[in-house]
Amino acid sequence: MQMETKLSVFFIITILSPLLLFAAQNKGAKEILLSGGKKGDVLFPHHIHQVILKDCTKCHNLFPQAPGSIEKLKANKQLKTKQIMKQCRDCHKAKKRVGGKAGPTGCKACHGK
């Protein structure tokens, strides 16, 4: 391989690798509107959580990575109404306890009327 070709390949890999990694991390919708019951729906910043947590199973241990899976599990009584809220709030509180940047823990900060 000629030196120019080697440099071109190196440049392409160097530039595209981080972009491909970022694209691979951002699966699913950027934001997801979750039913929040009487307190109002919750606009969930999905991509931000992917970047911060880096492990989808931290949330998706409760439900599959498929659109509408939360509502289906609730309808089949396989997921309690406040189970996801409790997991989110507990994770945010744990991050705050160790001095990290964390999301909200109060109702009004997530639920919008």
Q: Briefly, what is this?
A:
The chain has 113 residues and is mainly alpha-helical. Helices cover 54% and strands 8% of the residues.
Q: Describe it for me?
A:
This protein has 113 residues and is mainly α. The protein has a domain at 29-107: Cytochrome C3. Helices cover 54% and strands 8% of the residues. It has 6 helices and 3 strands. It has helices at residues 3-25, 46-53, 57-60, 69-75, 83-97, 107-110; strands at 32-34, 41-44, 111-112. It has a 3-stranded antiparallel beta sheet with strand order 1-2-3. Strand 1 (32-34) and strand 2 form a beta hairpin. It starts with a helix and ends with a strand.
Tags for this model:
113 residues; mainly alpha; Cytochrome C3; three-stranded antiparallel β-sheet; 6 helices; 54% helix
How does the overall form come out from the CA principal axes? globular
Mean pLDDT: 83
CATH topology call of one domain: Cytochrome C3
As a whole number of angstroms, the C-alpha radius of gyration is 19 Å
Oligomer description:
single chain
Low-pLDDT parts are: 19-24
Distance linking N and C termini: 63 Å
Structural class: mainly alpha
- Proportion of residues in β-strands: 5-15%
What is the makeup of the main sheet?
A: 3 strands, antiparallel
Give me the count of strands: 3
Order of helices and strands: HEEHHHHHE
